[in-house]
Specification:
Blueprint (H helix, E strand, L loop, with lengths): L8 E2 L8 E12 L4 E11 L11 E4 L4 E7 L2 E2 L5 E3 L3 E4 L5 E10 L9 E5 L2 E5 L19 E10 L5 E4 L2 E7 L4 E12 L6 E4 L2 E8 L5 E8 L8 H18 L7 E7 L6 E2 L4 E5 L12 H16 L8 E2 L5 H19 L2 H20 L11 E2 L8 H34 L3 E2 L1 H12 L8 H4 L5 E9 L4 E9 L14 E8 L21 E5 L3 E7 L6 E3 L9 E3 L4 H10 L3 H24 L8 H12 L5 H8 L4 H6 L6 H18 L1 H17 L6 H18 L4 H13 L3 H12 L4 H15 L3 H12 L6 H8 L10 H14 L1 H4 L5 H16 L1 H7 L1 H4 L6 H15 L6 H11 L1
Parallel strand pairs: 2-12, 18-19, 19-21, 22-24, 25-31
Antiparallel strand pairs: 1-23, 2-3, 3-9, 4-8, 5-6, 5-9, 7-8, 10-11, 12-15, 13-16, 14-15, 17-18, 20-21, 25-26, 26-29, 27-28, 27-30
Helix pairs in contact: 1-2, 2-3, 3-4, 3-5, 4-5, 4-9, 5-6, 8-9, 9-13, 11-15, 14-15, 15-17, 16-17, 17-19, 18-19, 19-21, 23-24, 23-26, 24-27, 26-27
The protein binds (3S)-3,7-diaminoheptanoic acid and zinc ion.
């Protein structure tokens, strides 16, 4: 908890460290009621800062009980140092020395899940960003890189497996039933990449032969009951290792790579050197217990953490303001990997839908910040969608501007130039510039200016001159601390469609010849016109293909034009996007009708468009499924000036029912065909099968709205007879959202009974119910909090129930009496004391109060005030609440 006034840390105050740590030798003595940590640090004055003086040495340390301290074998007494609840300060007498400390810590009662803690019966660590200071006194900053040797000692029968970073070098038995193991990491690393695990774990082992023919041992450790759910993660790991060699020329560098799955984990996973620690939800996957989405998430997270070995570990961040250096880049890398392993277009559609709904909302809210923030109170609050997802979009734009080859030249230079260093986003861009001989000065505004730029486009066709001009106007809304913005470099990938739907050859005025039918132009000014020549007939533009920049584009498309693009655009992503724009127009019309108290009338063009999608069996099923999915209520909220929760819900549900009524035979035909295939073929986690099941399941969810007995029978058949969690969970979810009360109750009970011993499946069971938009949602969630499988101490449970309710069940969360807000605030207050990082994350929906009507604004603000006044707040919660109210 915070005891002093929270301090704001500014990027502009960065200074290199006064001292460095060359060698770090750690010994952990793990016990049931405490742990002893001995640290020996071989230190010296940082030559970069050496000016003849010997400044005080200020070590970070929190919640540590100092038992012994010595410098160069001279024992230090309380007169030799100053101790506060966050620092240990002492005066070196020479410019190189060895510091020895012993501290006592209490992992057994660490509920914040940061530093060393227990998840169930196993010990594990989470040190990023600033958790190592809860383990020992240290220079806990990423620009201090050291070689680590770690010895772990624990009771043999409870903790047969003892792991840390690097290679195992020695082990042995001790008296009293204890044993020990020593690990040595030859690579210098910052403390945030340190890891330790001790537990009763089983592992699946494999071998990977690298491109230079070195053999690497791969091990995935899990609790014994999960040993049958590891193969998919192992396959994903091997694919990732091969892909990074092929696409980036990056090879793994140690003799062993380990992943450990733990149940209690604040995020998805952590890239500790050679010893990744994962939330079990991002490792365990098999057909019977994990959905297709979960399989894809495991593949993506395994890849993401593995890719960090180069983008993050070998080349790390100078300071935490540079977080996107490793995160934005690594998200881009994992997105490209997933695109190569599955369907590229579908992956892009999913990512863009997520970005537009969630990151755009963050960028428009009180916590908006640049990809490289200028300041923070609590760094844990900056593991955001902006740093990760928008950061990845920034790297994607560099890739688009330089082309695949130029980008690869840039990453080769970056890795070679900075191997073993802690660097900045500027260093990354500089490598791109130097390798390609380009100037990215203006482009770098993407790192420093927050907010989602708008790009308004106007067309002008001159039939006599045979020219077609597009005028782009960019602007960017003010964000906290940034009133004015300078123009961005916005790469716009585009094509011009002729009347038959073909891409016209594109030649800009002044160019000698046409350069293909798809190209990228760079909008760099506030207003800029591009004129295409040799254009005989007025074309239809397809703009920002693949979302080539993270901006909000507007062009005055008519609905018939959108339908034309849906059918003909050569860019699959833009075909989907045209469908989304059409749906948005139609839904916004319905929202208006609902608000005026008029009868709802759906534009039948949407039905026509959906009918042709369903009837055309030549189309990619995954694309059909994506295109049949209406924009979410959360997205409709994000694009509203003032979001009318009830009107949005009513309009969207009306559209869904109309689709179900009008296209029942087509939906049923697709459903039955795909369910028959699912029945006949055993589960496979491949893109083709994902596509088939996604279409089957979206069809079922529409069909169920009919309330027909034949659909109920089909749904129950799927629920009972399927061989995989994707079909079973969808069947359960549509039942839960239906009015078939008896069948619903029976299905929920049998599911819970069957999966009661599998916490990850129970998370799904909680989420499905938390997401049900039927009336009474809050009461259902409150009742579920008393279920024996629920606990506030497990972050996955909090996310599955409280998070799913507040983020995905908008009508119930935003009910007019404010009870949803009160519920969330109550739990944020409780979580603040247990686990500040989770408390702060769960707050996000309340921070969006400016989006709603006045009555709701007042209620939401009142809850934020109540949290602020609730007592001693963690810096995590304090920062988010105070910035939201500012
Ligand atoms: N680097 C970690 C995130 C750590 C978050 C700490 N609060 C996972 C990842 O992005 O790979
Ligand atoms: Zn990451």
């Amino acid at each position: 908890m915070r005891t002093e006034q929270p301090k704001v840390i500014h990027l502009k105050d960065y200074q290199a460290p006064d001292y460095l740590i060359d060698e770090t030798t750690l010994t952990f003595e793990l016990h049931e009621d405490h742990t002893l940590v001995h640290a020996q640090l071989v230190m010296r004055r940082n030559p970069e800062r050496a000016d003849g003086s010997l400044p005080a040495l200020v070590l970070d340390g929190q919640q540590l009980e100092l038992l012994a301290l010595s410098m160069d074998d001279r024992e230090l007494g309380t007169a030799d140092y100053q101790l506060t609840d966050s620092h240990l300060t002492l005066q070196p007498v020479s410019d190189s020395f060895t510091l020895d400390s012993t501290v006592r810590i209490h992992p057994e009662s660490n509920t914040a899940l940061e530093g060393l803690y227990k998840s169930g019966s196993m010990f594990c660590t989470q040190c990023e960003a600033e958790g190592f200071r809860k383990i020992t006194y240290y220079l806990d900053r990423p620009d201090v890189m050291s070689r680590f040797t770690t010895t772990v000692s624990a009771e043999q029968h409870r903790y047969p497996v003892l792991l840390s970073n690097g290679n195992p070098v020695a082990s042995g038995a001790e008296e009293g039933g204890r044993h020990w193991a020593t690990w040595e990491d030859p690579f210098k690393k910052p403390a945030y990449l340190f890891a330790l695990v001790a537990g009763d774990l089983w592992c699946v082992e494999d071998v990977f032969t690298t491109m230079s023919q070195r053999e690497v041992t791969l091990r995935i450790y899990v609790e014994p009951e999960n040993i049958d759910k590891v193969q998919h993660a192992m396959d994903s790991l091997k694919k990732s290792m091969r892909w990074d060699e092929e696409v980036y020329g990056r090879e793994y560098d140690l003799d062993i790579f380990m992943i450990v799955a733990v149940n209690d984990f604040n995020m998805g996973a952590m890239e500790n050197k050679g010893l990744n620690i994962f939330n079990s939800s991002c490792v365990l996957a098999r057909a019977e217990t994990a959905t297709d989405a979960a399989h894809q998430r495991v593949e993506a997270v395994v890849a993401h953490e593995y890719f960090h070995n180069w983008s993050g570990n070998r080349v790390t961040c100078r300071d935490w303001f540079q977080l996107s250096l490793k995160e934005g880049f690594t998200v881009f890398r994992d997105a490209e990997f997933s695109a190569d392993m599955n369907s590229r277009t579908v992956k892009r559609i999913e990512d863009v839908a997520f970005l537009r709904t969630n990151q755009f909302a963050e960028d428009a809210g009180p916590m908006a910040h640049p990809v490289r923030p200028d300041s923070f109170i609590e760094i844990s609050n900056f593991y955001t969608l902006t740093v990760y997802e928008k950061g990845s979009e920034v790297v994607r734009m560099i890739h688009t501007l330089l082309g695949a080859e130029g980008f690869r030249k840039g990453t080769d230079l970056y890795f070679e130039r900075h191997d073993g260093q802690a660097v900045t986003c500027d260093d990354f861009v500089k490598a791109m510039e130097d390798a390609n001989g380009v100037d990215l000065t203006q482009f770098k505004r993407w790192y420093s200016q927050a907010g989602t730029p708008r790009l308004a486009v106007e067309e002008a066709f001159d039939a006599t001159a045979r020219t077609y001009s597009l005028t782009f106007r960019q602007s960017c809304p003010a964000t906290p601390g940034q009133a004015e913005k300078l123009p961005f470099v916005i790469p716009v990938e585009l094509g011009l469609l002729d009347a038959a739907g073909n891409d016209l050859p594109l030649r800009l005025a002044g160019e000698g010849e046409a350069l293909g039918g798809n190209r990228v132009i760079s909008v760099t000014e506030a207003e800029q016109t591009f004129t295409f020549v040799d254009i005989a007939e007025k074309p239809l533009p397809s703009l920002l293909r693949g979302l080539s920049a993270p901006v909000k584009l507007s062009f005055p498309y008519g609905r018939d034009q959108l339908m034309f693009l849906m059918q003909h655009d050569s860019d699959g992503f833009n075909r989907w996007d045209a469908g989304q724009q059409l749906s948005v127009q139609v839904l916004q019309e319905l929202i208006g009708q609902h608000q005026r108290g008029e009868a709802l009338v759906l534009d039948t063009r949407l039905l026509d468009a959906f009918r042709s999608l369903l009837e055309d069996e030549s189309l990619d099923q995954a694309m059909v499924a994506e295109m049949l999915s209406l924009p979410s209520e959360a997205y409709l909220t994000e694009i509203s000036e003032v979001a009318d929760v009830d009107a949005i819900h009513a309009a969207r549900e009306f559209a869904r029912r109309s689709i179900s009524d009008a296209l029942f035979p087509q939906l049923l035909a697709r459903y039955q065909a795909n369910r028959a295939l699912s029945r006949e073929t055993p589960y496979v986690a491949s893109a083709e099968h994902f596509a088939r099941r996604t279409l089957q399941n979206i069809a079922l969810s529409y069909l169920m709205l009919s309330g027909k007995a034949e659909v109920l029978q089909a749904c129950l058949e799927q629920f009972e007879a399927c061989d995989n969690m994707t079909e079973r969970l969808t069947a359960l979810s549509v039942l839960v959202n239906s009015g078939f009360e008896d069948e619903k109750a029976r299905a929920l009970a049998s599911f819970a009974d069957h999966f009661k011993d599998n916490p990850l499946v129970m998370d799904q069971w909680f989420s499905v119910q938390a997401g049900s938009t039927l009336p009474g949602g809050l009461e259902r969630v409150q009742a579920l909090m008393g279920h024996k499988a629920f606990t506030l101490k497990n972050p996955n449970k909090v996310r599955a129930l409280i998070g799913a309710f507040a983020n995905q069940n908008l009508v119930n969360f935003h009910r007019a009496d404010g009870a949803g807000y009160r519920f969330l605030a109550d739990h944020v207050i409780t979580l603040n004391a247990l686990n500040p990082q989770i408390a702060s994350r769960q707050l996000a929906p309340l921070t969006r109060w400016r989006k709603y009507d006045e009555a709701r604004q007042t209620l939401m603000r009142a809850e934020l005030e109540r949290i602020l006044a609730s007592g001693e707040l963690s810096s995590d919660v304090y920062e988010v609440v105070s910035k939201s109210l500012a």
